[in-house]
Amino acid sequence: MSRRLLWFLLVIIVAVTLAVVIVPAWVIQPFRPQSPRGLEVSFALKRVAPFVTIVALLACLALVVKLWRGARWSRVFLVIILLPPAVSAWFARQNHFEWMFNPLANAGYALADAATFVADTDLVMAVARNGEAVAYPIRQLAYHHLVPDTVGRVPIVVTY
Amino acid sequence: MWETTIDGRTLHFHLAGINNQNFIMRDEETGSWWQQVTGEAILGPLKGRRLTRVPQDEISFALWKREQPMGRVLRPDPRAAAAGRYAPADWETGIAKLPVATQIRDRRLDLRELVVGVTVNGRAKAYRMTDVQQQNPIIDTVGGVPLVIVAAADGRSVRAFSRVVDGKPADFFARPEATLLVDSATGSEWEFAGRAVGGPLTGRQLAKIELLRDYWFDWRAYHPDTAVYSVGLARQRS
């Protein structure tokens, strides 16, 4: 295979692996509107991303190895061009929404009269089931967005 | 708020994204994406399935403590609190200034107007928070069900109840000095939890109707056929 073709393949694969992670992250931005089609595409890309990005990274590695021997000045570039597929392969496995809004690990609870961390005027989301009552302060829900719990022996997820 | 057991399997959810400012969650078990406000899976193996809604109440902490003195309260995460991730007490004023990225063009109300919304028998209706506070209680009928929207003395906690007592729709007015409703037929007094605490109907409980506190643009996005309450019309049917 000609070196030209190998370089061309390398560039195409890098472009694809970047697109696979960038498109969903771009579409699903907090202050932009989303369309149903945009979500469908993002969902599909996110599902395949972990696999596709790893394959792309390995393909790029193979291509870089093949191009290495004949190269001189461009060896620097060959190393640099491995960064985007590596970052993509890593990013495809991250949940960047959980960076923005940390999940509440090991949620703890206090009894009503011991809950000094909530002001009387604060709003809470209240649930009561089978004799058990729980309050989730809105100020915390507004950040974590999602708190799993079991109330009255029923597993639920509190969402905001 | 949703029950997480479906088809006998308990799902575990993570934040996955956002859809027109209403977030999306993903279950670990199937990878399906669910819309937070509707509890419906919009993409993935469980597409079209709906989680069972858990009735919720958005009220002030003071009111909740009075009603549920033995309840438990979610603690803040110390790291998130230390990092200043939690909103300040006046966060609602801050949010009101944020841009709204939405395709909703319905300007019956300001996009960030705070409303309380009910859905009864498939009919949706939104009430401006300011109307609820001024008119308290609001007597209305939605989806053929006579209801009353009542605000507590704190001006922020709002509940909706069916007005039907003994098979007939009752009429209510408010006692200004306390969060008490009085029904015009018997003069019984009803507390904010919907229970009669004085008068001939003592002990009766009004049926609670679920109500959502939301911004107009979000309510309208998920209830496209929603009606909007107008102050000044004596009786409305919708």
Annotate the secondary structure layout.
The complex is a heterodimer of chains A (about 160) and B (about 240).
Chain A: H1 3-27, H2 36-68, H3 74-80, H4 83-91, H5 96-100, E1 109-111, E2 123-129, E3 132-137, H6 138-144, E4 146-151, E5 154-159
Chain B: E1 2-3, E2 5-6, E3 9-10, E4 13-19, E5 22-27, E6 33-35, E7 40-43, E8 57-60, H1 61-67, E9 72-74, H2 78-82, H3 91-95, E10 114-120, E11 123-128, H4 129-135, E12 138-142, E13 145-151, E14 158-162, E15 164-165, E16 168-169, E17 172-175, E18 180-183, E19 189-191, E20 196-198, E21 208-209, E22 211-215, H5 216-222, E23 227-228
Parallel strand pairs in B: 11-23
Antiparallel strand pairs in B: 2-3, 4-5, 5-6, 6-7, 10-11, 10-22, 12-13, 13-14, 14-21, 15-16, 17-18, 18-19, 19-20
Commentary on this structure:
The complex is a heterodimer of chains A (160) and B (238). Chain A is of the alpha+beta class and 160 residues long. Chain A has two domains: 3-99; 112-159, no CATH class. Chain A is built from six helices and five strands, in the order H-H-H-H-H-E-E-E-H-E-E. Chain A has helices at residues 3-27, 36-68, 74-80, 83-91, 96-100, 138-144; strands spanning 109-111, 123-129, 132-137, 146-151, 154-159. In chain A, helix 1 (3-27) packs antiparallel against helix 2 (36-68) and helix 1 (3-27) runs parallel beside helix 4. The longest helix of chain A has 33 residues, at 36-68. Chain A is elongated, with a radius of gyration of 24 Å. Chain B has 238 residues and is mainly β. Chain B folds into two domains: 5-43, no CATH class; 56-238, Rieske [2Fe-2S] iron-sulphur domain (Rieske Iron-sulfur Protein). Chain B has a four-stranded antiparallel β-sheet with strand order 4-5-6-7, with no helix packed on it. Chain B has a four-stranded mixed β-sheet with strand order 22-10-11-23. In chain B, a hairpin with a 4-residue loop joins strand 6 (33-35) and strand 7 (40-43). The radius of gyration of chain B is 20 Å and the shape is globular. Chains A and B meet through helix 2, strand 1, strand 2, strand 3 and helix 6 of A and strand 1, strand 4, strand 5, strand 8 and helix 1 of B.
